[in-house]
Write the structure tokens for this entry.
Amino acid sequence: MHKLIIKGGSPLKGKIKIGGAKNAALAILSATVMAGDVVLLENIPDINDVKVMIKLIESVGAEVEWQGEDAVRITPPDAIAEMPPYHLSKQLRASNLMMGPLLTRFGKAEIPLPGGCNIGVRPMDLHFKGFAGLGAEISLDKGCVRAHCRKLRGARIYLDFPSVGATENLMMAACLAQGQTVLENVAKEPEIVDLASFLNCLGAKVRGAGTDVIKVAGVRSLGGCLRYPVIPDRIEAGTFMVAAAATKGDIQLENIIPLHLEPFRAKLREAGVDIIEGEDCLRVKVSGSLKAIDIKTLPYPGFPTDMQSQMMALLSTVSGTSLITENIFENRFQVVDELKRMGAKIKVEGRIAIIEGSEGLYGTQVKATDLRAGAALVVAGLMARGTTEITNTNYILRGYHEIEKKLRQLGADITMVKNGAS
Ligand code: EPZ
């Protein structure tokens, strides 16, 4: 195990290249098992969740080869011998995205019911209701969910909640179904749009991604795609933006899509952060003092829940009272206890966190409880007086490639050491 050691107080300065989007890469990698020929993906982040997803698609027969730093060549399976094994599926909630591709391409899918995780119960009822609507038989047995159907049939499906995963699973399943599928009240995140454009590169007929209604005309089979670059990671970008604001720094982010950052760029501007936009870059700096703001997490294009913990860390040292309402997950305030150990003054009442900005945080030992909580503690450590040690860094490495190297490039005093080392 490793821990991060951060000596706070250095303003971040310089340029940083943002990597490919984790949540687009995971969905697109799972979709490759539907392809009929070789696929080459680019801008794939070399992070632990991607490594697990690659093992998952290999477990059903795909051949995968990294080419250089961030390209992956995949030869999809012609048939499947095995279903994804439990020891892999349980490591990654997004293993549930294998269901749609396996069911629609091979007529069956079986994955362990992904357990809840630190941020919530995370049921899959909307996924199963959609698969059943497409004609699949769904059964639960010994903690595994099984779906089978010789040939899915297009249908009209309304999602009770615009679930990202359910939208992705059902959009993939509909690609090889018989006839037309209409998905209503779907998620509109940029990662949904990226998955749809990848599926269309394979020869699928997906229309409307990014709006409330997605229409899919089923096709008999899909081909390959010899070059597909995945979109940049808007949450990695947002995390660095918050870190720059927290340390009163001045950084330039490269390889981003500014539109995807709009929801939290607007909130950072409201707090007093200067953001100057370029073609595919953004400059973030702080000239004056920041002010308290209120945030409500919502499905895209609302404020993203994946940026909530990082903003909480920033606002914990902004004078005044800030409110954060978490509307997406029922248990995504776990970072509060760790921030309070660093001197933050935060009270949680149900889905609302009340943050009294304190004059500053002090470094101490803290532990990451989930991916974005870990990122929030990095932000807190960068601005705290003294030294912060963060354990359970495996959570952070799930979603951030070489975060300590990138921060060191920007002037942070941060190192990753083996836990137990002095
Ligand atoms: C995706 O998770 C992301 N993960 C999450 O990012 C992100 O926080 C989330 O979308 C919301 O934007 C990936 O893309 C791999 P949901 P997902 O289905 O698909 C409820 C990160 O840090 N729900 O939109 O699991 C659910 O319980 C991760 O990168 C049902 O009730 O999210 C939750 O309260 C964390 N029934 C809400 O919807 C269902 O069948 C949103 O979940 C499905 C979901």
Observations:
- The CA atoms of residues 64 and 74 lie 5 Å apart.
- The chain is about 30% helix and 25% strand.
- The chain has two domains: 3-18+232-417, 22-229.
- The longest helix spans residues 234-246.
